[in-house]
Amino acid sequence: MPKVLISDKMSSDAEAALRARGVEVDYKPGLSPDELKAILPEYDGIAIRSTTRLTADLIEAATRLKVIGRAGIGVDNVDIPAASKRGVIVMNAPFGNATTTAELTVALALSAARHIPAATASTRAGKWEKNGFMGRELAGKVLGIIGTGNIGTLVVERFLGLKMRVVAYDPFISKQRAEDMGVSLCPTLEEFWPQLDVLTVHTPLIPATRHIVNEEAFSKMKNGVIIVNCARGGIIDEAALYAALKSGKVFAAGLDVFEKEPAKENPLFELDNVVFTPHLGASTYEAQVKVAVQIAEQIADYLLKGTVQNALNIPAVSEGELSTLRPYLNLADKLGTTLGQLTTSGIKRIEILYEGEASTLNRKPITNMVLNSLLSPMLDGVNLVNAPLIAEERGIDVVEAVRRHSQKGFISLLAVTITTETRERCITGTLLYGKDPRIVAMNNIPIEANPEGNLLFVANNDAPGLIGRVGTILGDAGINIANFHLGRKQIGGRAIAFINVDQDVPVAVMDQLRTVQNVLEVNLVRY
Q1: How far apart are CA 465 and CA 486, in angstroms?
Q2: Annotated active-site positions, please?
Q3: What are 67-91's pLDDT values in tens digits?
Q4: Is pLDDT above 70 for 283?
């Protein structure tokens, strides 16, 4: 009989769900790392929340461990590479708190619009300041939403019920999908910002979304906008938000998450026009029960049936197969990440071509990795298992193609082509020395680039002096170039550059690069 340890405080329904399926369970929250290390070798699975930290040392000691289950979304407290190395599946429960987070988003928007916390405090103090809390109606106004994943979709439904018009920025949904949801799709942030009366964000926090709502974004919004964040701290630049609240550009804000948590001190706390909650997105009785039961059922299904759900690392493969697949999974991750951060319109089709030695591999985990990395920049809840389903739900055709012999002289190639509503883009990669990922072509233009750190992508018409101007702009901004990779098909034709830089590239510098004559496109990919 499989044996599972529950090492964090969790609804008793989780223990009951495991026992009902024939799994032996020990409920021992509050163990020290040394105490946990001493008993971990007894267990096939462990269920945790956010308190238990499963380090590489603990995972190495857990000789029987087959699965780690996180009751909730975030897995910052699990060393996923160490688990993958040991062949331990890491699962989460990404959807149990979707409804409660969507409801909190509505609650914060209404509270901010009507000054409810401040009015409550005033009334409790014996004042009757009706004129001091003039609010805003939401009906008939425009809600802007960034990210329409699982939680975002529920948010849209609720604000449509408040008789608001909804506009969305989400590069990974088609116009048809947006129409089916009842929202208008904005292809660019430039078109998105000026329309909003209320803004809410529902994306993961990754380099591409960090500070996506910043000083420049606020400058393009209407005066008196309302801002809500129940997703992740850091998506909104708090310093820029503070300035916008002080100036009146932002009428009010509702924040459940912060750049630094626990947020016991924050300049925003001094402002009366902000509603705060201490990361309560999942803090309802119903949500706690849902995620606890969901992760218990997933752990039991894996231990008893081998069924993998909501895995965040490599799907179950044999140890021998894993060693062969690992470098290709890394390559797939790099190619998917690159395309995901370069894509700005709805995706219709994704084709993955396996050439040479890659054509002989188990393609399912590699394809899943491409989809996961490609869709993750703007969608919450995407993982290696559900990525194909999410693509299917969004009407994206996913096609695998095989070519036994590479036509370009490489031993092995992986090419990913995406077709959006506005363009087609293809990126091709290989493994240098059989282990190090390299980009070797973009849109059939040969190049060799190392996908790591900060990688600046520039597309241009081939013309004298352009490289010098790009280098000068970066140098003047204090940005050091580590590698400068160039590619072109013919003199005077279309050319590309991948530039590894040692620092992040600010938006203002990106905009300056876009003004250089003959430059057609500039984007930054962060790995």
Answers
A1: 14
A2: 232, 261, 279
A3: 999 998 878 789 987 887 777 889 9
A4: yes
Q: Specify burial of residue 162 (Cβ count, 10 A radius: 0-12, 13-18, 19+).
A: middle
Please say whether the dihedral angle defined by the alpha carbons of residues 257, 262, 266 and 272, taken in this order, is positive or negative.
positive
| CATH placement of domain 98-276 | 3.40.50.720
- The label of the residue with tokens 């949801």 reads 181
Give the span between the Cα atoms of 244 and 239, in whole angstroms.
9
Least Cα distance to 456 among 513, 394, 377 occurs for 513
The superfamily (CATH) of domain 453-527 is ACT domain (3.30.70.260)
Residue 361, sorted as left (phi over 0), alpha (psi -120 to 50) or beta, turns out to be beta
Find all residues with CB under 8 Å of 272, minimum gap 6, and list them: 118
**3-class state of residue 89 by DSSP:** strand
Ordered DSSP codes for 416-482: EEEEESS-EEEEEEEEETTTEEEEEEETTEEEEE---SEEEEEEEE--TTHHHHHHHHHHHTTPPEE
Q: Which amino acid is at 219?
A: S
Predicted TM-score (pTM) of this structure: 0.73
Q: Which of 382, 371, 389, 377 is nearest to 343 (CA)?
A: 377
Give the CATH fold of the 314-443 domain: 60s Ribosomal Protein L30; Chain: A; (3.30.1330)
Residue 15: CB atoms within 10 Å: 19
